[in-house]
Every structure is written in structure tokens, then in C-alpha cells.
Amino acid sequence: MTELDRKKEQTPVPKEWAYAPAPESRDVVSIEDRYGHFVGGQWLEPSETYTTISPATEETLAEVGQATPEEVEGAVAAAREAFENGWSGIAPAERAKYLFRIARILQERSREFAVLESLNGGKPIKESRDVDLPLAAAHFFYYAGWADKLEYAFPNRRPRPIGVAGQIIPWNFPLLMLSWKIAPALAAGNTVVLKPAETTPLSALLFADVLRQAELPPGVVNIVTGDGRAGAALVKSEGVDKIAFTGSTEVGKAIQRELAGTGKRLTLELGGKAANIIFDDAALDQAVEGIVNGIYFNQGHVCCAGSRLLVQESIYEPVVEKLKRRLTTLRVGDPLDKNTDVGAINSKQQLDKIRELVEAGEDEGAEIYQPPCRLPEKGYWFVPTVFTNVAQSYRIAQEEIFGPVLSVLTFRTPEEAVEKANNTPYGLSAGVWTEKGSRILWMAERLRAGVVWANTFNRFDPTSPFGGYKESGFGREGGRHGLEPYIDFDGSEPNGG
Ligand code: NDP
After folding, report:
1. 402 in ligand 1 pocket by Cβ < 6 Å?
2. Most buried of 186, 384, 423, 483, CB within 10 angstroms?
């Protein structure tokens, strides 16, 4: 009998904990039936539209514009005009005031944004409320602070803005990715055309109302919606000086090919297959919480998710046992319910991709564990899943699943852990769990990952740079480093490199 079983016998726990439903009210947000593109401070009637839905219920939420190349060009022209006729010349301290205002309005309207984010994206309200919104506001506060201190950020280099930034963001953290992109761009004196992801346009469209409230000059931020074709048109537009992209490695590569030789600046934040490494001296209960947070946070729709668990062989059994037990307590369901831990999968397409990779894992010989779980009948759902007996070569150990699916592997020595952790085309993040500080530093030096968390996971802070190596992309967002992609320096080629 294991120690856990013995404890279970000694302290009987109720078979089932029943939570009463605790849904957040939807009334706090009003969604229009139809949205156009936000260009030059105006709402423009779109020539084509599509419908955006709630992935938890499949209900239609609104009709949204599908930008044509001409409409994208219109937005770029508005951004150019705003750049040349005011924004780039405005006193930096004035720019800072707008950013502070945006940050404060986001805080004031955070409940409204959190509900909308969960409705349109499927993420649990406790995450949009406690993670996405506070961090989005924090990014605007942070970069507001830099706007009039760029000469201190880059001493003796005379920084100046680049021009018009085209920004393309994904669906996993719609408002947060918007903030990561827009805040440093504006702080550095650039203007912006932003394209949110096809499935999650609503928080960006509501953000246009924040810009109106903040009285940001027209054209400084323009928002065009639509699928990948709108993103491609933005990348191609000759009026854009810099592209910032977060999304899949495949599209990132296509964008890099497209921009080669054009002189446009580019930053790419792409996929990941992070190793979360647990040593035998780690505090196991905390580590299990870190594993759960690492992979089931936001349904695993996280580029830096700890999707590969590397456990030291001597503690494999207790860790897997504790993990499976913890999984049975995760509540999957209504994203607007405050007790929900795992919400809806963002789209049918993403659900199909997760199912395909999970099938591949089973076919290749891995052992699957899914806790008993009743899923809602409508909408897109996937049970939190753990695979054990995973070989390094399996697709589930190599490919980004971008869903609530964890692959467990083992190692014996720190050297082996490093080998296995680095054995992936990606290099975005990693986690190390041990009580030895020296081991953390030893590991961090050797892991080829842009971010290494120690005894924690998925921690974000606007002051800390984030970005990848290898196929996870290049360029950093956050911190002083996050300003650099939006700045030219006197003496450097205009718009170059
Ligand atoms: P994409 O890379 O297709 O989407 C990211 C953004 O780029 C979206 O706004 C998208 O528009 C846009 N886009 C799509 N095609 C082009 C193009 N040719 N040129 C310019 N922009 C384009 O990711 P997916 O949504 O298709 O997700 C696929 C996989 O990507 C996921 O399963 C996951 O593995 C990975 N991913 C990684 C993310 C990360 O944070 N690193 C984020 C999202 C996905 P649209 O939404 O209309 O497709």
C-alpha cells in the first residue's frame, strides 16, 4: 500500500465535492451585433464580414469585418498620417500620459473586459480576471514609464521611432498580446495597425472604445479584423516599417520569407514545447501545482506551456500519482463560472488538432490518463490529459499540441535532463524544480530557452523580457528589451536590420 493510500484510509474524504454554479454576469458587457474596422479613429463599414462565436456554447456573438487588402492599406495610410502629422513629434511625456490613461481605463473596465475575453475565447473567468487583465494594464503602466526615458534606456544612442508597426496577434491571450504589442510601440513613438486573431476579435474591438475614452489622437492605433488573409495583407503592405507577430512557427516562417530583403523590421514570437523539470529534492506538492499550472492554465493554449514533464526517475511514481489525483479535482466547464479551472478549447479547428495528436500518442504506444469528467454537450472541450510511457521520438513529445495534454518523461542525471529538455526544435521556456540554488543556476546556463522559471511556472511580469531561441522565434517583448524592436538609433540604417 502506498503512503497516499494509507493516508486516504486514515482520513476519509467525501466522495464528491459539489460546488454550486457561480457564473459571472454577462450583463456587464454589451456586444454590438456588428463591428467594422477601427481606422483613423472611426468605425468603417466592412465590405465583408464573418461571425465570431463563443467556443463554450457555439452561440454567435457578433458579426465582424473581414478586412480586404484595400481596407488594410487604408488602415496603414491612417497610421502613417498619424505618425507623420503629430504622434512621432509629440513630447514623450505627453505620449506617456495617454498610456497611463489607457492603463487606468483598462483597470476601471477590467470586469467588462474579463467577461468578454472569457466569452469570446473560452478561458476561465478567474484567469482572465486575475491574470490577463491585471497584466494587460501593467504593461501599459510599465511602458508609460519608459516613454520619456528612452535616452536613459539606451544611453548615447539617440533613439527615434521606426514608423508604422503592423502587429498580428493570436487567440490565446487576445487582450494581453495586444498590450504586449501596442504599449511599447506607442511608448517609443510609433503608430500601429493591429490584427487580432480571427476567433477572438472582440476584446480588441472593445479596446477601440478605451482609445476613444483616452482621447488618443485618431490613427495612432488602428484595428482591422479578419482571418490570415488580413494578416498576410498587413505583412505585404509597403507602408509598414515593422512587423511584430505572435503565432505558429509555420506562419512565422512564411512571414520571414515574405519580408526577406525588404528592410522591414521583424520580431517573431512562435511556438514552444517547454520542459518542466522536477528533481528529487523538489517540494513535490508545490511542484505538482506548478505542473498543473504549467500545462492546464488556459487549456494549455500557451506558447510557453510546460507540455513536457521531465521527472527524476527516483520520484516518478509519487509525482505521477499525486498529479493524477490532482487532475481529478480540476473543474472543466463554463468559462464564466468562477469555480472553473479549465475552460473551452478556443475553436473546432484547435480541438481537431488536439484530438489528432492525442490519437497519435495512443497509436505510438504512450499510456493515456484522463480523469472522470462530464463535458458540456455543446461547445469545444477536451479533458485534461496525461501521457506516461512517452518516448522522446513520439509526436506528443516533439510537436506543440497547444491543448491540455501533458507528456511525462524521466531522467536520471542533470546532464540527461538538459539533453532531453533541449532536444526540440523550440526554445521558448523551461521550468526547474529543486531546492538547490546552485543547481538552478547550473541548469539555467545550459537550457536553450528564452525564459527559465525556478520553482514556479508561467509567471509573467512587464519588466521581464520574454522571447525564444531556435524555432520559437527572435526578439524580446517586455522589459527594456521590448522597446528595442520599436526603435531606430541615430547612425543606424533607417528601418534597417
Ligand atoms: P496562426 O499562426 O495561424 O495565427 C496567428 C495570427 O496570425 C492570427 O492572427 C492569424 O490570423 C494570423 N495569420 C494566419 N495566417 C497568416 C499569414 N499567412 N500571414 C499573416 N498572418 C497570418 O496560428 P493558428 O491560430 O492557426 O494556430 C495554429 C497553431 O499555432 C496552434 O495550434 C499553436 O500550436 C500555434 N500557436 C502558437 C501561439 C503562440 O503564442 N506562440 C499562438 C497561437 C497559435 P487567423 O486567426 O485568422 O488565423
Report:
1. yes
2. 186
Whole-number Å distance between alpha carbons of 99 and 214: 8
* DSSP-derived 3-state class of residue 273: coil
Atom of ligand 1 at shortest distance to CA of 350? 32
Give the span between the Cα atoms of 250 and 233, in whole angstroms: 17
Cα(196) to centroid(ligand 1), Å: 10
pLDDT for residue 8: 67
Summarised one tens digit per residue, pLDDT across range 314-365 is: 999 999 999 999 999 999 999 999 999 999 999 999 999 999 999 999 999 9
3-state secondary structure of 202: helix
**Three-class SS state of 222:** strand
DSSP 463: T
Query: Coil, helix or strand for 85?
Result: coil
Residue nearest to atom 10 of ligand 1 (CA): 228
Q: Kindly report the number of other CB atoms within 10 A of residue 424's CB atom.
A: 24
- Closest-CA residue, ligand 1 atom 6, reads 170
The Cα 55–Cα 401 span in angstroms is 18
Chain region(s) in the chain for CATH 3.40.309.10: 275-462
Q: Is 251 in the pocket of ligand 1 (CB under 6 A)?
A: yes
Is the minimum distance from the CB of 231 to ligand 1 under 6 angstroms? yes
| Residue 215 burial by Cβ neighbours in a 10 Å radius (0-12, 13-18, 19+) | exposed
CA distance 416 to 410: 9
pLDDT score recorded for residue 18: 76
Q: Look up residue 268 and give its three cell numbers.
A: 517573431
Looking at this protein, which amino acid is placed at residue 173? F
Q: Please report which helix (H) or strand (E) contains residue 473, including its range.
A: strand 473-474
Of the candidates 11, 146, 118, the one whose C-alpha atom is nearest the C-alpha of residue 55 is 118
**275-462 CATH:** 3.40.309.10
Beta-bridge mates of residue 405: 385
Report the 10 Å Cβ neighbour count for 290: 22
Regarding the beta carbon of 195 and ligand 1, being less than 6 Å apart is answered yes
Confirm or reject: Cβ of 466 under 6 Å from ligand 1. Answer: no
Residues of the chain with CATH 3.40.605.10: 26-270+472-488
CATH 3.40.605.10 assigned to 26-270+472-488: yes
The catalytically annotated residue of 303, 304, 477, 484 is 303
Q: Which of 324, 304, 312 is nearest to 456 (CA)?
A: 304
Positions of the chain with pLDDT lower than 50, given as ranges: 494-497
Please say if 493 is a catalytic residue. Answer: no
Distance from C-alpha of 406 to C-alpha of 387, rounded to nearest angstrom: 6
Q: What is the pLDDT of residue 1?
A: 63
Q: Which residues contact 197 (CB under 8 A, 6 or more apart)?
A: 169, 170, 171, 174, 247
Q: Which of 251, 405, 472 to mutate to test the pocket of ligand 1 (most atoms within 8 A of CB)?
A: 251
